[in-house]
Every structure is written in C-alpha cells, then in structure tokens.
Design brief:
about 350 residues; alpha+beta; D-amino Acid Aminotransferase, Chain A, domain 1; D-amino Acid Aminotransferase, Chain A, domain 2; nine-stranded mixed sheet; about 30% strand; binds pyridoxal-5'-phosphate; binds 2-OXO-4-methylpentanoic acid
Length: about 350
C-alpha cells in the first residue's frame, strides 16, 4: 500500500489482463462494463472528509438501516475522460464539481471541496488509464455520494460515503448517432418548483422511470417532461437537456429555473452556438408551439444534449394523441455542426479556446 496526497492506494490483486480488457471494451454499450478500481472517501461530522482510498472495485457492505436505503439521500455526477493525441483529458470537471456541491446543498449533504472532487476523479482515471478507450469511445466516470448512517429517524445523515467508479462506454443510444424518437409524457412530471429538479439526485431518476417505461412501450428512446404546474412547457428529457433550432438561426432552450438540470453540455452548446453566430434564447417553449412549429417548418431541428448522449438529434415526437416529425426526421445540419465542434474540443481535435479541457497527469 502506498500513500499519495489524501488517498491510500491498494492496487487490485488481480486486475483484468490486457486481453480480458480488450474483450470487455470491444462493444461496451453504456454503463455495463466497469474498470478494476474505485475511489472511496468517508465523511463524518467529527472528521469531515477522510480515509480516501483507491482500491479494487468491490461491493459495499452497508447496514440495512443505512439511511440512503430508506430516504434516498443520494447524489451523483456524470462525466467522461477522453483519450486524445495529447493524453487523457477531462471536459470541464470543475463544472461537475460545482454542480455536485449544489446538489449536496439541496439534499442537506456535506459538500466535497471542488479540488478534492477533481483529485478523486483523477486518481481513478490514473489508476485505470488503460480502460480509457481509443477512437469514439470514452471512459464514463460516475462520482456519487450517499447517506451511510444507520438510523431510521428522518433527518440528514451524520455519515456519508463518496465513491467514484468508471465504465468504458460507446454511444448511449442503440442506434449510435441516428436521430432518436421521444415520448412526451402528459401525465408524469419530473420536478416541481421548489423541488429537487436542479439537483442530480437519484430520486429524480427513480421517479422518471415509470415515464421512461411508457416511452419504451411506445417505441421511444427517451421521455420528454413537461412542467409540473401547467403540463404545458417543455422542461427536459429523462437524462438530457433539449434545444430547438429555428429557421431564423435562433437556438431556443428551456430556461434554468430550478426544475431542470443545469447541464454542462447545454451550457457548452449555448456558448458554441453564440460563437457560431446563432441567436440564443433561454425561454419557455410549449409542447403546442413545438408541434405547430414542426408542422409549419419554423422549427428546423431539435436535439438532446448531455454527457452520456453527447448531442443527439430528435427526429420524431410521439404523444398520446399522435406523433409529428421534425425536419426530415434525421440528424439536422446545425445539430451535426454543433456536435462536431463540441466533440472536436473534447477530443483535442478543435482548439479549446475556453480552457474547458483538463489533461490528467498520468
Ligand atoms: N438533464 C438530466 C436529467 C440529466 O441527467 C443530464 C445528464 O447528466 C443532463 C440533463 C445533461 O447534463 P450534462 O450535460 O451536465 O451531462
Ligand atoms: C449523464 O449524462 O451523465 C447522465 O447522468 C444521464 C444518464 C442518462 C446516464
């Protein structure tokens, strides 16, 4: 065992061989294959964050009374490491760190200092660097934190575990970068004003699953949520933000107002769109407008954006009363251009003029 900085290192006694790893990474899909190690850290009131460990990925032994199992005090992040010609890089990890802190605050959990969060993520990327795919793939990183105190009363836990795991991934959607079909949920909503919509907490996803199942039953890839008050305004997808491209070179996207996740991809795309000369409007956009604009041709394209899915064109929209197509139902021109720019920056092929890319020292 060696110690560097805050983290002790206990290497996996029998990591996957290069051959086993190559087989596992051949066609990894999304979130099914995991690397050899994990990073774990503990928080107590007395000691704060301590006991940082880099060790073999293994199950946790948690008590049946651990409060996460009862009251779902859990938050997470999603980010990727890319293999570029200059080494392995992370994309805007400071943004994941600060969003994790905001999620923690909303869920009455202790914040992780941003530099400690980034250090923990980099520890895992370093130890499992061989798992960062070449080519189109990337290493999806999942930092998360949960309440680990054994106590059944309802109050914030006094103990937490923070962990980072990693999974080599390909495209999120089965069809790769083909335009996807989405289901608009008229009944189920994701987040109400004053709720937890802007936090990346597991509970938001638990409550979205029944709507996602409805989407799947209707042959759709993802669910689109409308607002919880009027069931009228488009909010976001189950795991992505959404943007609309108009015929006058305007990009419209729902505003951040506490009920949707402030996506890092969304923020990056808005910046790139402005730089490309587009007018960007963060404003409420209703399902009715979406349908009418798609039919009149005022709306040219719609795309979903997020770390897992990157930028995915939406070709068809289904809802209880029918369906409508967007543009030519395929991947739109602006969608493809913005995706190429973003992916180019992430992969070190387009100049990073914003300081978004951070190289991990190996
Ligand atoms: N909205 C939801 C509900 C998400 O789960 C995600 C993915 O993390 C996003 C939006 C996009 O966020 P980001 O671009 O930071 O990955
Ligand atoms: C991500 O993009 O990181 C998410 O958490 C969304 C989920 C669909 C995997």
């Amino acid at each position: 065992m060696t110690t560097t900085s805050l983290f002790t290192h206990t290497p996996h006694p029998s990591p996957k061989t290069a051959e086993e790893r190559a087989v596992a990474m051949q066609n990894p899909g999304f979130g099914k294959v995991f690397t050899d190690h994990m990073v774990v850290m503990t928080w107590t009131e007395e000691k704060g964050w301590h006991k940082g460990e880099v060790k073999a990925r293994a199950p946790f032994a948690i008590d049946p009374a651990a409060s996460v199992l009862h009251y779902a005090q859990e938050i997470f992040e999603g980010m990727k490491a890319y293999r570029t010609k200059d080494g392995i890089v992370l994309f805007r990890p400071d943004q994941n760190a600060s969003r994790m802190a905001l999620s923690a605050e909303r869920m009455a959990m202790p914040a992780i200092p941003e530099d400690l969060f980034i250090q923990a993520v980099e520890e895992l990327v370093r130890v499992d660097a061989d798992w960062v795919p070449e080519g189109d793939g990337s290493l999806y990183l999942r930092p998360f934190m949960f309440a680990s105190e054994n106590f059944l009363g309802v109050r914030p836990s006094l103990e937490y575990i923070f962990c980072v795991i990693a999974s080599p991934v390909g495209a999120y959607f089965k069809g790769g970068y083909q335009a996807v079909t989405v289901w608009t949920s008229e009944h189920y909503t994701r987040a109400a004003p004053g709720g937890t919509g802007a936090a990346k907490c597991g509970g938001n996803y638990a409550s979205s699953l029944v709507a996602q199942a409805e989407a799947t039953k209707n042959g759709c890839d993802q669910v689109v949520f409308l607002d919880a008050v009027e069931h009228r305004w488009i909010e976001e997808l189950g795991g992505m933000n959404v943007c609309f491209v108009m015929d006058d070179n305007t990009l419209v996207t729902p505003p951040l107002g506490g009920t949707i996740l402030p996506g890092i991809t969304r923020n990056s795309i808005l910046t790139l769109a402005k730089e490309a000369g587009m007018k960007v409007e963060e404003r409420p956009y209703s399902f009715e407008e979406w349908k009418n604009d798609a039919q009149s041709g005022k709306l040219r394209e719609t795309f979903a954006c997020g770390t897992a899915a990157v930028v995915a064109g939406i070709g068809t929209v289904r809802y209880r009363g029918g369906e409508f197509a967007i543009g030519n139902s395929g991947d739109g021109e602006v969608t493809a251009k913005l995706r190429a720019k973003l992916v180019g920056i992430q992969r070190g092929e387009v100049e990073d003029t914003h300081g978004w890319v951070r190289t991990v020292s190996l």
